[in-house]
Amino acid sequence: MTGGRPGAGGAEGGAPRLPGIDRALEAGRQDGVAPGLAAAVRHRGRLVHLSAAGEAQVEPGRRPLGAGDLFDVASLTKPLATATLAAQLAAEGRLDLDRPVAELLPGFAGAAPSPGARPGAAGDATGPAAAGAAGPEARRRVTVRHLLCHSSGLPGWRPYFERAAADPVGRLAFLPPAERPGDLDAAFARGRELLRDAVLSEPLEAEPGARALYSDPGFLLLGWVVEAAGGAPLDRLFAERVARPLGLADAAFVRGQAAPGPAGAPYVATERCEHRHEVNRGAVNDDNAWALGGVAGHAGLFASAGAVAALGQAWLDALEGRGGGLLDPRVAAAFARVQGPPGTTRALGWDTPSREGSSLGRRLGRGPRGALGHLGFTGTSLWIDRDAGVVVALLTNRVHPTRESERIRDFRPRFHDAVAGTLGI
Predict the structure, then answer these.
(1) What is the DSSP string of 370-384?
(2) Which CATH architecture has domain 19-79+251-423?
(3) Could you give the residue range(s) of every CATH 3.40.710.10 domain in the chain?
(4) All residues at 6 or more sequence positions from 168 whose CB lies less than 8 Å from its CB, including other chains
(5) Would you say 239 and 251 are in contact if contact means Cβ atoms under 8 Å apart?
(6) What is the pLDDT of residues 337-347, one digit of tens each?
(7) What is the C-alpha separation between 203 and 133, in angstroms, rounded?
(8) What is the tens place of the pLDDT at every residue in 24-33?
(9) In 3-state terms, what secondary structure has residue 187?
């Protein structure tokens, strides 16, 4: 994590605040949505709100949440890091979205179904369902585009980290903190080896393009595709090609465990993790990403609310046709189009609002150009209303210290309606 906070994401001291949004965050805290909630809202290119309510940590000690604190944004990593880099590389001609993944990751081509594969076990899908797992030859038809719009035929999730936790070397990263060696490089290197082999050999559950199913394995693969096309590790590509051009010191991957800091250290706590025997703070919450050392295509990014909103603004600027920014407007427009089998709401790396029950609520994203957004398991979200020119980053630690509460499901649409009402939309 780079230093010098706060960056372009916005400073807490003197930051703009809108009372209606403050009240919505405080209501969420009082309703038990999460111990802490932070929000950044941009309207017509300006930061109009940045604030936080509640606590960054309640266990083992308590610490109040600051508006510039750094959240594990979980699956917001997918659009903000992995898909953003893919869009840049596509614009430069270094990544062909319709190229087979097997040509970029040769191990994917030779993989065969593993014993005991359970087609369809990962959850519901949209589009025509395959009558069982696709044959190994179908893997050669999986393209980068399939990964981006979650139509590769891969499952939704697998506990790959269990392979590392059962390995004599990989397990060192899963020991209680007091028993871990001071240097986990060997454990993470072994974890990367084991997980890469597992994902590359993961059987398809459906023919490529036949269904849309949100897939972490797909974005694990996409992270490695981006590294192959970009010629560097994902965290370095993000730092050099995304965070640095935007002037963001408060958005980065964390390799392993962040160095201990003073009492005011800015990392927001997430789960009390049974696999790692600790409350996660300054280390990625996702166990598959942890086994890889903290850097993955599906999870691992840490950011402040202001930084997430600034990244959303970079996408909105490109979608409004402003060249010379982070993204090529033509490529951004292509990434914003819904793609895949009938019934999907997925664009490339992004989601779009469903007609009913969207976390965006009832007022935003209703114009002709609609909206782009994404959610993160730890309690995070980003939505971009293309017609109103509104970017809303909502970050919470709703999984701290446990993931039991699901109150954020009802809170997200209420919060976005409150934002719209405050802005007069």
Answers:
(1) -EEEEEETTTEEEEE
(2) 3-Layer(aba) Sandwich (3.40)
(3) 19-79+251-423
(4) none
(5) no
(6) 999 999 999 99
(7) 7
(8) 999 999 999 9
(9) helix
